[in-house]
Here is the input.
Amino acid sequence: MLKDEIAVIGAGLAGETVGIEFQRRNYLTYLINGSVQDNKSLPDAKNLLVLEGYDGLSGERSLAYEALKRNRRILKKIAEIDKKIIICIASGGGSTGSGTLPYISEIAASNPDKIVVAVLLMPRPDEAIQKRLNAYKNKLEFPDLLFTTKFCTPLNSQIYCDAIEKIINEINLTRDPLDTMDKFSGHCFRHTFATRTIKNWLEQGMDVNAKLLLLSTYMGHIHPEDTYWYLSSTPELMDIASRKYENIFGGDAHE
Here is the structure.
């Protein structure tokens, strides 16, 4: 099973919050934090790796990095993970996760035979400016970004929305006025990716509920119910699910 090949590392409160959902589904999961208060909010957590000597980091990413370097038993634990795929999850806006995610990912990837996926959860636009600055700095520490500006900096939503609009306008200049392409937002790419992934799982007879947490993490959703929205809001997916219901239980799934 794919589950047997995966380990998850959640750093900081946001990373722990996502990581514990994997843990509850029996994935090998380690949770890293220096805040006693944060850890108390996860009473059923297992494999808690506490950054000894650092109870809260006051939003300072550099302190988190130093804390991880000094806690060698945690570094040793990360290096000894024997799973093929390691998913490292943290928020870019905080301190513990933001400051340690690049280092954790680097240590996990020290074995070239492993596949390491760093999942950076981004702060909301209405969160404090310091959180957004932390997230921006965190992004710059991952050089292999898929989409960047000509200056090799991360794209923001306005840049790629403007680029999409420009491409559509140029395409429509070559088309008949009655056959122009509709405008769409960059979020449509996420929607298409999510729905096609779920569609493929349904058509292959896979257990979507069991796999949805992986999709949630890949898309940066802290709460799996945010990903369930794609399943319930897309008629094509609902139709496939209904047909499978009829094949298994008979009758009309819409009754």
User: Anything to note?
Assistant: The mean pLDDT is 79. The longest helix spans residues 157-173.
